[in-house]
User: What shape does this take?
Amino acid sequence: MRAVGVTEFGGPEALHVVDVPDEPLGEGQVRLRVSAAAVSPTDTYARNGTYAKRDGVTTFPVVPGMDVAGVLAEVGPGVQTDLAVGECVMGVVVPTGAHGAYREDLVLPAGSVARVPADVSDVEASTLPMNGLTARLALDRLALEPGQVLAVTGAAGAFGGYVIQLAKAEGLTVVADASEADEQLVRDLGADVVVRRGDDVADRIRERYPDGVDGLADGSVQDAAVLPAVKDGGAVATVRGYPGDGARGLRVFPVWVREYAQRADALDELRVAAEKGIVTLRVAAEFPAADAAEAHRRLEAGGVRGRLVITF
Ligand SMILES: NC(=O)c1ccc[n+]([C@@H]2O[C@H](COP(=O)([O-])OP(=O)(O)OC[C@H]3O[C@@H](n4cnc5c(N)ncnc54)[C@H](OP(=O)(O)O)[C@@H]3O)[C@@H](O)[C@H]2O)c1
Assistant: This one.
């Protein structure tokens, strides 16, 4: 079975097509024939070895990737599901070793998989699970009430975009950051107020909300720099583990999508949100497996809007 991975850590050029055996199918698991795997920033760290120590990587190949779509190929013992073999499904992957999204044959817990949205290609569907679930988790932790104000940084990105759209659907007021070039995009995603992105984004938000916002989702990973935007006692969701500084009673929630990696119910709600047009699936470009290195090169160059997707 083809996969895209590394046999030694390195730059984008280290990614290449590798041959991997089928994964064994166990209790409570399903097998997917993957046709699309979205490329996320975290995949570049799996590729270059940043996560190797944390994850105890000792053998190669390492196959990155956290998002897939494809066909349900097999249902393991003990799985309760209304999904049928042959249906198009999407899934979230917690990668380890050769078990990552960039592979044709993939076994996942049944709880990590849901039907793809109607009238959506596998390539589009593959952009939803990981960042959609992270956005859901962030909003669940922030637990704001309708009418409260949420700030979103990295708003033009995949995570930020889903946060804006889900928050608007729940009746929140959203203030989002953007470069001049991204301003229309972020407005189209539903932001009520747009402020210029940058190191001083907290000041820009305070200019519009002098008492501070009720909550903030920090998709640009600016950590301590964004805390001043939030009112005393407000809530912050961070995406790379920043725990806050303990000041002003702020409640800082480092969110990790693996907490929601078996929330098929939440993934299915995202399917419905996509079908209703509440969330938009944005694809920047597709790359056949043999050209995966180019996808990583483009992502690392910055400025990509919409997801890059590897196809099998
Ligand atoms: N903890 C988890 O479970 C989890 C799950 C999902 C995502 N994440 C993390 O969440 C972050 C966002 O993911 P994503 O997929 O949405 O990434 P993305 O699509 O690349 O979006 C990130 C956005 O932030 C902008 N940005 C980056 N640095 C900035 C800065 N210093 N100031 C202002 N804007 C900045 C980027 O602009 P440019 O493209 O112009 O640089 C881009 O618009 C990543 O760090 C990712 O690893 C964590």
Observations:
- The first helix runs from residue 41 to 48.
- The chain has a mean pLDDT of 97.
